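Example 4.3 (complexes with small molecules)
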Amino acid sequence: MKEWLLAHVPFQLLNRKEPVPAKYFEISLQDTSSYTFIQGPPKERLMEIRRQNCNPVTMKITYYKKPLFAHQGFMQWIWDVDGRRYLDLFAGVATVSVGHCNPKVTAATAEQLKTLWHTTNIYVHPTLHEYCEKLTSLLPDPLKVVYLTNSGSEANDLAMLMARLHTGNFDIITFRGSYHGGTQQTMGLTSNSPYKYPAATSSGCTNTMCPDVFRGPWGGSHCRDSPVQTIRDCSCAQGQCMANEKYIGQLKETFATSVPSRIAAFFGEPIQGMGGAVQYPKNYFKEAYKLVRERGGVCVADEVQTGFGRTGTHFWGFQGHEVLPDIVTMAKGIGNGFPIGAVVTTPEIAAAFAKAYHFNTFGGSPLACAVASSVLDTIKEDGIQQNCLTVGTYLMTEMAKLRDKYEIIGDVRGKGLQIGVEMVTDKASRDPLPPEAMGEIFEDVKDMGVLIGKGGLYGQAFRIQPPMCITKQDVDFFLAVFNKAIQNYLNRH
Ligand SMILES: Cc1ncc(COP(=O)(O)O)c(C=O)c1O
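Answer. The structure with pyridoxal-5'-phosphate bound is encoded below.
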C-alpha cells in the first residue's frame, strides 16, 4: 500500500464532488484540455427515458444506486456529464483494450470513415485482407482461417455450428458459472442462471464443475498460474496437484453420466471472466483437451475477455495453459469498443464448414477492420502486453497485502490485467459477502472516483479488467480508494 497517496490526497478530495486535481498524479491532462463538458438532457429526463424506452432489465441491474452518467472518455479515464473524472478499471466490461478514444485508433478510424465505411466481403477490399493476415500472424499454426462477426455471442454461435458440422457430433461441454453469450444458441453454453431465460436454448449443452481453486471443494496454495495463490492449505508434493486430479475426475464423471460417448466440443475461457477471473489448476486444460479429443470433440478457447495481451505473459490466454485449441473465439478488446468479433480456426474445420454459404453483412466491414487493425498495431507499438504483466502483477501483489489485512477480502487472483478480488464474510467459511455489502463497497469506490466491475455466481467478486494502458500510479490510487472503502464499510458495520 502506498501511503504517500493518502498523505497527498486529502480525504475530502477522495470523497470529492470534483475530480482530484491532476497535480496529485503525474499525469498530464493536456490531451483533454480542449474538452467541453456538455450537460445533455437533465439526469431525471435520462432516467425517465431509460425507464420508458430502454430494455427494462437494465433498470433492474443499473449498476449503481446513484447511476453514472458517462459523457466522455480518454484512455483510462471517464468523465461524467458534470465533468467529474473517474479512473475506469472495468473498461466497459473488459472491452476498451487500448484506452478510451485512443488517439491512434481514433485517427485510423477517422481515415477509414473518409474512405469507405461499408461494403460486404463479397468484394475484395484491402482492410479485410490486411487485417486477417495481421490477426493470424499472431496465432499458432494451424489456426489460420478467420470469420469476422459483430460480437462475441455471434462468434461463439458460429463456433458451435462449426464444431458440430466438423465432428458430426452434437454435445458441447462448458464450465458452470460461464458466460459465452446471450443468443438463443449460446445461452445453452452459458451456465449462469441470471442470464438464462425459461425458453428452449440450444439443446446438447452440458456443464461440468468449474475447477475453481478458491471457491470449489478443492484447491491449495500452488494450483494456479497467478502471482497470488489462494489462502487455502496445501499438502501436495512438488509437481503434484490433488485439486487438478479431483476436478478432472468431475469432468470424467460428466463424460460418464451426461453426454454421449462422442461429443462435438468443449468451450472454456482460459480465465473465467464473469466469475471474477476464476482460475483453474495449471494442467487442467491440458488434460481436459486430451479427454475431449479422445471423444471426438474439438476444443474451443473463448478469448473474448482474455485475448489481445490482457493476461500479460502471452497474447492469448490459452498459451498460458500450454494448449492448442481447434477454434478460438474473440470479441470485446479486439475493437477497443467498436463492434467486431472473430472466429479463427483450422483449414480442416473451415472446409467442413463450407457445406453452406455463411454470410454476414457487417462482419469484416472496412471500418471494423481498420479499427481492429489499428488496435493490433497499438498493442504492439505501445508495449501493451508487457504493461499488463508489469502493472497487473503489481496490482495483484499489492492487493494481496490488503487481503492479508482484511478478513472480508478472501481471494486475489488473475493474470496480467484480468483480475478478480473475491469478498467473503470470513476467511474460514469463505461464504460470499452478501450483495448488499458488495453494493456498499462498490458504490463507495465509485464515489471516490474509481469504476470497477462485479461478478461471480453470487455477485461476490470484484472485477478489475481496465483499459490495458493503466499505470502503477493509477493502481496506487485505486488501492488507496479500495482500502478506504473497506475501512468505511467496516466502520459502518
Ligand atoms: C467470455 C465471453 N464470451 C462471450 C461473450 C459475449 O460477447 P458479446 O456480448 O459481444 O456478444 C461475453 C460477453 O460478456 C464474454 O464475456
